[in-house]
Amino acid sequence: DGKILLACVGNKVALFNSESLETINELTFPCNIYSAAVNPTDPSYLVAGGEDYLVYKYDIDAAHQLDVAKAHFGSIHCVRYCPDGELYASASEDGTVRLWQHNVGSTYGLWCSVDDALLNGDSLTPNNNFPLLLEDDSNEF
């Protein structure tokens, strides 16, 4: 919504009110952070990535880490939320871009929850965690 200004400085992400420049919060991470983004539909959430190859998800108001994911095999240089706030992306010097669900397990685009897959009669992977999307009837994937 343009009301929060982020600054990544070393292992800290500072959040400021973009109009008054008053500090909203300052989050400390275990490594240098190169990029951070606030959820555009719920500005109480932030994702960040940096030199330790991990993606962090924080509750800004509580200054509490909600999740951390081993994401890449190189430093993360960019994280961004999609406009609807349901997905965020992380991009790394390893040449990959990964997409993450903000609310893990919810049905979104081609992602569907295991419960939805079972109700629809879809095939599941061998470990029964995620539905398989088969392109044709050959059962090859």
Secondary-structure map:
Layout: E1 4-9, E2 12-17, E3 23-28, E4 33-38, E5 45-50, E6 54-59, E7 64-70, E8 76-81, E9 87-92, E10 97-101, H1 114-120
Antiparallel strand pairs: 1-2, 2-3, 4-5, 5-6, 6-7, 8-9, 9-10
Overview of the molecule:
- Mean pLDDT is 82; it is low at 123-141.
- The strands form three sheets. The protein has a four-stranded antiparallel beta sheet, with no helix packed on it. Strands 1-2-3 form a three-stranded antiparallel beta sheet, with no helix packed on it.
- It has one helix and ten strands; from the N terminus they run E-E-E-E-E-E-E-E-E-E-H.
- 5% of the residues lie in helices and 43% in strands.
- It has 141 residues and is mainly β.
